[in-house]
Design goal:
elongated, Jelly Rolls, mainly beta, 16 strands
Length: 224
């Protein structure tokens, strides 16, 4: 999953058209207004206590994208979002990173080096990161080929065996480091982040700066 798609009141009938008073906003039983409201029918919007004279302006405030009648927002990771993955920069050495399916693992110049030849699904994975089902998370990593003949990619998984390898970050078929990122849905209480090659690896690949942080749709979004 790379984006949030949510229905956000794109058409509202009735009520004054005044922007300043915002009396047109829907309210819950306690009288609270939504943090984000897009009214396509009347071309107006509301976000974080501010009224917008055009729906497009409110959408832009949350870095949203319009496509016909669809509005897409997200994802957003707060600057102070806590890091959920321990030792993603290998400051503590190999730590609880685990080699799977015959792969070799070592720390070389502060990076994770994975090696092997003639292997299937060679992987080195992190320790467990605490997650919650139904929440969204952004996985990030930097990775490149060394002497390997196969491309390399990183991916999150709820399984300690890292199977199946869904939600993969973009593959890198070069020796130039790629900063990859992918937003994924929490599927359980723990997730892992792994480094894998498409085949082989028949040589070495490298990874660093692995990270998992919670992502939300936009600033101020609260999951209920």
């Amino acid at each position: 999953m790379n984006e949030f798609k949510i229905g956000i009141c794109l058409g509202v009938s009735g009520g004054p058209a005044s922007i300043g008073g915002a009396s047109w906003l829907p309210r819950d039983g306690s009288g609270n207004t939504p943090i984000l409201h897009l009214d396509l029918a009347r071309n107006r919007g509301w976000y974080d206590g501010q009224a917008f004279a055009a729906e497009a302006l409110a959408l832009a405030a949350v870095d949203g994208v319009a496509s016909g009648g669809t509005r897409t927002v997200g994802d957003f990771v707060a600057p102070d979002a806590p890091e959920l993955l321990a030792n993603g920069d290998f400051a503590a050495g190999i730590g609880d990173w685990t080699a799977l399916n015959g792969a070799g693992a070592a720390i070389v110049s502060g990076q994770l080096e994975m090696s092997g030849a003639g292997l299937t699904n060679a992987t080195v994975r992190s320790g467990a990161a605490a997650t919650q089902q139904g929440k969204a998370y952004r996985a990030k990593a930097t990775y490149r080929k060394g002497t390997a003949s196969s491309s390399v990619f990183a991916f999150p998984s709820r399984s300690p065996t890292m199977s199946p390898p869904g939600n993969g970050l973009p593959a890198n078929a070069t020796t130039v480091a790629l900063d990859g990122a992918r937003t994924f849905a929490g599927e359980g209480a723990t997730h892992y982040l792994g480094l894998r090659t498409a085949s082989g690896p028949n040589g070495t690949v490298y990874g660093d700066d692995f990270s998992i942080k919670e992502a939300v749709a936009f600033p101020g979004f609260v999951r209920t």
